């Protein structure tokens, strides 16, 4: 509570100088593809006696994020944090997904039409919300039931409590779309045990709810059938005490153990292969293991890597490695540059080709440029980490909201 009071005092001074109010106004710009939708329906709000719930509500699109959705989340979360009558906040998704990440087809269409500013606004708005989530002062409960990919993890995993279920499916498939894991992924993936983060980022492999608990990505596990009971209990709670919320979640929790076929049983092999310095060395190590072993895991892992954009693999490995030594805001600033450089085709059109092949034409036969790892130069990779043309840098309110996770 002392931290919250201090934050409110600082915010008051910021409002007087207009700096913070200008930042808030920046969220009002919406991309063209969202103007025809009812914005209040994309994120539904449920009020409880001492809490609020934000419900992502685009079930037909697996709750894929648009700029308008994230802008609304920003406004809601800021107002809830300042409201002393609200003790904690909950987030969940409608339908069979929590959130499938960014609406990449909409971004693809915008970029193809030349609307780079709308694309930039999406990443700016999303990354600012991820930072808000990662520095949020009130307890936050995310019910991660169903599909959770890419940016869907970014808007939830930085929060305090993450509840997964027997329906949860987590993945970062971006390298197979010529992109990179973003929205804070280089921060939380790089902090997983050993080199599991590199494995997940480079292969796009999936984790289930039990595996997320075991590796530390989630805090509580519950069967999907119990979620309604959890929500009902939380909705009646009059508290802002994290320990009380934790106890309530634990009361509905289940003890879980990963299946012996889980990828987590391969952590030693993952560390041996994915702990190496370059993508080429990782592939070579996997090929040697595959030749000397009857374990099909090595072969399937090689297949996943070879389906990905060679340039995206190298960019992603460097991003995760740099994330190991950076704070959340530094990771977001770097990911912002990488994302915009990908949209701008600074070194390659792989983002456009990957989305076309997997989500537009669905021929699943992308023609990557460059087509092989040995044709990816250091300059190409460096280009993604440079300032994206004349576009403005990402400005996060680090003076107002110092990261503490």
From TrEMBL:
The keyword Hydrolase applies. It catalyses: 3-hydroxy-2-methylpropanoyl-CoA + H2O = 3-hydroxy-2-methylpropanoate + CoA + H(+). Signal peptide: none annotated. PANTHER family: 3-HYDROXYISOBUTYRYL-COA HYDROLASE-RELATED, SMALL RIBOSOMAL SUBUNIT PROTEIN MS47. This is 3-hydroxyisobutyryl-CoA hydrolase. Keywords: Hydrolase. The lineage of its organism: Eukaryota, Viridiplantae, Streptophyta, Embryophyta, Tracheophyta. Its EC number is 3.1.2.4. Residues 52-385 form the Enoyl-CoA hydratase/isomerase domain. Coiled coil: none annotated. It is an enzyme of class 3 (hydrolase). GO terms for biological process: L-valine catabolic process. The keyword Transmembrane does not apply. It holds the Pfam family ECH_2. Belongs to the enoyl-CoA hydratase/isomerase family. Hydrolyzes 3-hydroxyisobutyryl-CoA (HIBYL-CoA), a saline catabolite. Has high activity toward isobutyryl-CoA. Could be an isobutyryl-CoA dehydrogenase that functions in valine catabolism. One of its GO terms (molecular function) is 3-hydroxyisobutyryl-CoA hydrolase activity. It comes from the Eukaryota. Pathway: Amino-acid degradation; L-valine degradation.
């Amino acid at each position: 509570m002392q931290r919250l009071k201090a934050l409110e005092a600082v915010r008051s001074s910021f409002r007087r100088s207009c700096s913070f109010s200008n930042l808030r106004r920046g969220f009002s710009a919406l991309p063209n593809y969202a103007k025809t939708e009812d914005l209040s329906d994309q994120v539904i709000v449920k009020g409880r006696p001492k809490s609020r719930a934000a419900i992502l509500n685009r079930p037909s699109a697996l709750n894929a994020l648009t700029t308008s959705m994230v802008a609304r989340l920003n406004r809601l979360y800021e107002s809830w944090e300042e409201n002393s009558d609200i003790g904690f906040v909950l987030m969940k998704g409608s339908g069979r997904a929590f959130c499938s990440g960014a609406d990449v087809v909409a971004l693809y269409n915008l970029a193809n039409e030349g609307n780079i500013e709308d694309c930039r606004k999406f990443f700016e708005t999303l990354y600012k919300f991820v930072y808000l989530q990662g520095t949020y002062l009130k307890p936050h409960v995310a019910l991660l039931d169903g599909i959770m990919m890419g940016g869907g993890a970014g808007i939830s995993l930085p929060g305090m409590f993450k509840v997964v279920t027997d329906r949860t499916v987590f993945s970062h498939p971006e390298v197979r779309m010529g992109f990179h894991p973003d929205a804070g992924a280089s921060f939380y993936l790089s902090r997983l045990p050993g080199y599991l983060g590199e494995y997940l980022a480079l292969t796009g492999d999936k984790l289930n709810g039990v595996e997320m608990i075991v590796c530390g990505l989630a805090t509580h596990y519950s069967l999907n059938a119990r979620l309604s009971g959890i929500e009902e209990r939380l909705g009646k709670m009059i508290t802002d005490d994290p320990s009380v919320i934790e106890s309530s979640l634990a009361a509905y929790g289940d003890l879980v153990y990963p299946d012996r076929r889980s990828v987590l049983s391969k952590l030693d092999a993952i560390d041996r292969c994915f702990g190496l310095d370059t993508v080429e060395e990782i592939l070579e190590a996997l090929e040697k293991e595959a030749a000397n072993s009857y374990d099909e895991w090595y072969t399937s892992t090689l297949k996943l890597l070879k389906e990905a954009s060679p340039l995206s693999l190298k960019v992603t490995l460097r991003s995760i490695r740099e994330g190991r030594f950076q704070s959340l805001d530094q990771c977001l600033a770097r990911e912002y540059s990488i994302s915009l450089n990908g949209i701008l085709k600074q070194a390659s059109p792989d983002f456009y080709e990957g989305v076309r092949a997997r989500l537009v034409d669905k021929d699943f036969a992308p023609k990557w440029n460059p087509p092989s790892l040995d044709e990816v130069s250091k300059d190409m990779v460096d280009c993604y980490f440079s300032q994206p043309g004349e576009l403005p840098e990402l400005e996060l309110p680090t003076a107002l909201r110092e990261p503490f996770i």
